[in-house]
Amino acid sequence: MELQNLIYLFVGVSFAIYIGIAIWSKAVSTKEFYIAGGGVHPVVNGMATAADWMSAASFISLAGIIAFKGSDGAAYLMGFSGGYVLLALLLAPYLRKFGKFTVPDFIGDRYYSNVARTVAVVALIFVSFTYVAGQMRGVGIVFSRFLQVDVTTGVLIGMGIVFVYSVLGGMKGITYTQVAQYIVMIFAFTVPAIFLSLQVTGIAIPQLGIFGQTTFAFNDGVRIIPEGTYLMHALDQAVEDLGFSTYTEPGSLLNMFMLTVALMVGTAGLPHVIVRFFTVPKVKDARISAGWALLFIALLYTAIASVAAISRVNLIKNVQNVEYQQFIDGKAKHLDGTTNDGGWFKTWEQGGLLAWNDRNGDGKIQYSSGKVFDHAKGKPEYDGEKIGEYGQRLTTNALPAAGAKPFDNEIYVDRDIMVLANPEIANLPNWVIALMAAGGLAAALSTAAGLLLVIASSISHDLLGKVIFNDPKTGRTKLSEKTELMAARLSAVVAICVAGYLGIHPPGFVAQVVAFAFGLAAASFFPAIILGIFDKRMNREGAIAGIIVGLVFTFSYIVYFVFMGGVKEDYLFGVAPTGIGTIGMILHFVVAYTVSRMTAPPPQEIQDMVERIRIPKGAGEAHDH
Amino acid sequence: MTEEKAKAYWRENISMILKLLAVWLIVSYGAGILFINQMNSIEISGVKLGFWFAQQGSIMIFVVLIFIYVRFMNKLDEKYDVQE
Question: What is the ipTM of this complex?
Answer without folding.
Answer: 0.97
